[in-house]
Write a structure and sequence with these properties.
- By secondary structure, the chain is α/β, with parallel strands linked by helices.
- The chain has three domains: 312 residues, polyphosphate kinase like (2-Layer Sandwich), CATH 3.30.1840.10; 170 residues, Endonuclease, Chain A (2-Layer Sandwich), CATH 3.30.870; 183 residues, Endonuclease Chain A (Endonuclease, Chain A), CATH 3.30.870.
- It has 18 helices and 27 strands.
- The strands form four sheets. Strands 14, 18, 19, 20, 21, 23, 24, 25, 26 and 27 form a ten-stranded mixed β-sheet that branches. Strands 10, 11, 12, 13, 15, 16, 17 and 22 form an eight-stranded mixed β-sheet that branches. A six-stranded mixed β-sheet has the order 2-4-3-7-8-9, sandwiched between helices.
- It starts with 9 loop residues before the first helix and ends in a 17-residue tail after the last helix.
- 40% of the residues are buried.
Amino acid sequence: MPSEQNYFNRELSWLAFNERVLAEAARETLPPLERVKFLAITASNLDEFFMVRVGGLQYLKDARKKANDPAGLTATQQLSEIRERTLAFIKEQYRILSQDLLPALRRSGIRRLTPAELSPSQRTHLHAYFNENVFAVLSPIAVEPGEDDRLQLPALQIVLMSEVRSRIGDEEQVRHVVFTLPPNLPRHVVIPDAEGNTHAYINIEDLVEMFIHDFFPKEQVTGTARFRISRNSDITLDDESAQDIAAEMEEILEARKSSNTIRLEIEDEPDVTQSLIKAMQQICDAPPSLTYMIPSELDLRAYFAIASVPGFEELKTEQWPTSEAVTLEPDESIFDVIRKDDILLYHPYESFEPVVQLIEQAATDSNVVAIKQILYRTAKNSRIITALIKAAQAGKHVTVLVELKARFDEARNLERAEELLAAGAQIIYGVRGLKTHAKITLVVRREPGGMARYCHFGTGNYNEATAKLYTDISFLTRDPVYGADASAFFNTVTGRSRFVHFQKISMAPFGLRERLLEMIQSETARAAAGEEAEIMLKMNALEDLQMMEALYAASQAGVKIQLNIRGICCLKPGVKGLSENIRVISIIDRYLEHARIYWFRQGGDPVVFISSADFMTRNLSKRVELLTPIEDPASKKRLLEILQTHFSDNVQARQLDKDGNYTPVPRPTAKSKTKAVRSQEFFAKQAVRRHRPRAQSPDLLVPHVPK
């Protein structure tokens, strides 16, 4: 029976991940706008954490569910610890903002101005802007605490509440009025600045509050507060009983707009009275336990816009180039290149373009007869979906499984699925009872030797935008065994075919877990027999009990285990008698670490996989996932190098200890004579070297002659 003492709590481990991201915002060696970007990321992360994880825990608490998590904590205990940790986190966010980032930006010419700092001419300009662009857009709505039909305020939008006093005869009346600031209003209003060469702006909430009296010409506004709510988004589709999944998903999206409040954020200004706070809590149905007083401006996600403000290149990081790993000759297609050899790509160091080209060229190639693909999260203006539509319109057999249950992408996926359906593609809305997270494409092409199957297996989404920001592995092959497995996989998920055992790949929830356990247990047996045994795993999260128990057993047998886990890690490393042979690192850097690579020594003949799945129960038991072995010697060697380089990182890596603390891996010093290894920078430079165009040998020598 697993002991509760052997595990970290999942939610607190996630908060530790966000703290590591925040540490990048505090890093003084980074340019100011790069630090600002990391600050915005932490805010976006925290929003999603509250909407999903805290929302789910709040439901368990309200339903009086007794179940403890693997670390032994009840839902109530977890919520209490999350609140305590979050309050400290918010304090640090705003310390970094107020003491470090805003002063640094101001010194460099990016200035957020408060109303008190405005000159008379700037106030005049802003009043005109307010009258022309803002006044007619806003809708003041009177609200009274305690009304049964509460106003359904939108989530994650800043709302102003004003206390308005009016006199009718001898009687004074007080009412509360709210203004929701819609997202189509710019958060930052640029101000003409007499100093020149600067980017001066005021926040929209400051602008509205400055001129809020314009809405109440014969009344008195005695106080205004800003707040923002988060709603529970942990509302899932019961597709076991759903008759029309698309219609049910639309109902889920509507339900989220009015779900329970799970967080109320109030900007802690000096003139925010207790009566205003109480009114906000009552209107939002948020008790003090769900209320967070925020030291300064709400919604730090707005700093994404500041991070990308035009100009100010000296305040940004120098871009690392993306290398074109596959270059096509004028008369060459992507099929010609894959036919020559398997292709392994490490994005974003190597471009995602070959994957896009596979779909785009398949759409127009007269020899292509079928395209099958899984879509989970796609780009806004996806070239891949455009190509699939074109292929369907051209009469090709296009089958696309669109996962409608991809959280926060449901609306976009539903819309794109309808476009594909209208073009003539066959659309499958996921698999009943499971979320489809596998990354696979199959292109069937008529060739002289018969039908050829071209496959793409990946660790990341078919999203051209995130492929420039996330690190992922792509594997492109024409190998007939992979092709047969890919066909069998699609038959299983789209045709309700009886599950078959594949020749190479493994599929969750039918065998992927078992294949990984088999590999871990094989290394364990080798260590017990006195052989050298080693496991290296790179993933986003580790929380599955069975996988952790297997890793503990392997450690106790003497297997050397290295884990590179970006986010959640519930396993405790370095515990005597349990896990002293396990080392865990996390790397937070410019790109989001997203690749899953699993390597096993196997007596000197290593076995290595790429996968769409993390070691999480949801991935291994509740999703359709893929585990793909990479057998090409050059690709295996490359994946080993990727793992070894990440584990050698001594610039951005932090190591987890048995108490749950992440401390920087010892940095290189002049005295230690250790070489600095920043793994992401290494791969960026390596990609440039690997794919640098070779110099052409001249056909003849042309001497310079005097004129």
